[in-house]
Design goal:
Elements lengths: L2 E10 L2 E11 L3 E5 L6 H9 L6 E6 L2 E2 L11 E4 L11 H11 L4 H14 L15 H13 L5 E5 L7 H16 L4 E5 L3 H7 L2 E6 L2 E7 H4 L6 E7 L2 H10 L3 E3 L7 E5 L6 H10 L3 E7 L4 H8 L11
Parallel strand pairs: 3-8, 3-9, 6-7, 7-8
Antiparallel strand pairs: 1-2, 1-4, 4-5, 9-10, 11-13, 11-14, 12-13
Length: about 300
């Protein structure tokens, strides 16, 4: 694991923001989800060395977290949600300046700045003043400054904010490319769960200052052995009535399509579905295990009723 945290606690006065959390992150694209106040931003700041923990230990590469060692920032990139551009700078000057702050020589910083600006699609605009940049261009520029020093771990805080659908897709493609081709650990903190599902392979869900769930999405969202999606040819109300009489749970019935979901009870198999519906001349056209979505996973672990449903 690239990053490991054990029994990590952080407080702001009497308010415990991180409460004995344990977390291990692989070298992969990671989605970080949680409602406002869950501790996501505090976790990022702790890894960056901006906050000293009250207790616990952590390790990133060969560095101990919370020890105040600023060298860790040479191996970590950060794309903030808020505006961080410098007025009067061109893109190449701004990105090279960020590279120099992270330990690169002036010559190497300019070389890397040109490379990453082309990577994020700003090569033709690299000499333009930043005040002329659109929202989408500014988001790409923030991504460029976060990766210019070739970090092993990159935190992206709401990277698709303010982008139109096409721009959001392009940004997610960029993030995926950096994670896969550049072989970097990308931590995407976003309130858009579809973006997390589209762009990452590992997810961390936080709530009430704790890690509620973490793991690979393909494992966490794997279909239940007793939960199926059905598409039929025949009367949906009649099919629902037949299955309900068999003490099966039927839900998510579509109003416009002959489809619904069913959860089998003990002793009831998929073959029994074909038998009981077949007796009523109802044909099963499609039967497949029902995978969970990231949103369903989120709602399972986060007390939605205690929040406004938005994320940090």
């Amino acid at each position: 694991m690239l990053l490991e945290i054990k029994d990590f606690s952080v407080s702001y006065g009497k308010n415990r923001v991180l409460n004995n959390i344990n977390l291990s992150l692989p070298n992969a694209a990671v989605g970080l989800l949680g409602p406002n106040g869950a501790g996501k931003s505090t976790l990022i700041k702790a890894v960056l060395g901006l906050i000293k923990p009250d207790s616990g230990t952590g390790r990133f590469l060969d560095f101990s977290l919370g020890g105040g060692d600023r060298r860790i920032r040479q191996f970590v990139g950060y794309m903030p949600e808020s505006e961080c551009l410098i007025p009067g700078f061109t893109a190449v000057r701004y990105v090279s300046y960020a590279a120099q702050l992270n330990g690169l020589s002036r010559r190497e910083a300019f070389k890397r700045a040109h490379q990453v600006l082309y990577l994020v699609g700003l090569g033709e605009a690299r000499y333009r003043d930043l005040s002329t940049y659109s929202t989408g261009m500014r988001q790409r520029l923030k991504l460029a400054q976060a990766i210019v020093h070739d970090p092993y771990l990159v935190f992206l805080d709401e990277p698709t904010n303010g982008l139109d659908p096409e721009g959001r897709e392009e940004m997610l493609d960029l993030i995926r490319q950096i994670a896969e081709i550049e072989d970097r650990c990308i931590v995407l903190s976003s309130h858009l769960m579809r973006d997390v599902e589209r762009c990452t392979e590992f997810v961390v869900i936080m709530d009430q200052a704790q890690i509620k769930c973490s793991g690979y999405i393909k494992d966490l969202c794997a279909g239940q052995a007793d939960r199926y999606s059905l598409r039929i040819a025949g009367s949906v109300p009649q099919a629902v009535d037949i299955l309900t009489q068999q003490n099966l749970k039927v839900e998510h019935v579509h109003k416009r399509e002959p489809a619904f979901e069913v959860t089998l009870r003990d002793g009831f198999t998929a073959n029994d579905l074909f038998y009981h519906l077949g007796e009523a001349q109802i044909q099963i056209r499609q039967l497949k295990p029902r995978r969970f979505t990231v949103e369903e996973l989120y709602r399972k672990h986060v007390a939605i009723g205690g929040h406004d449903g938005s994320q940090e």
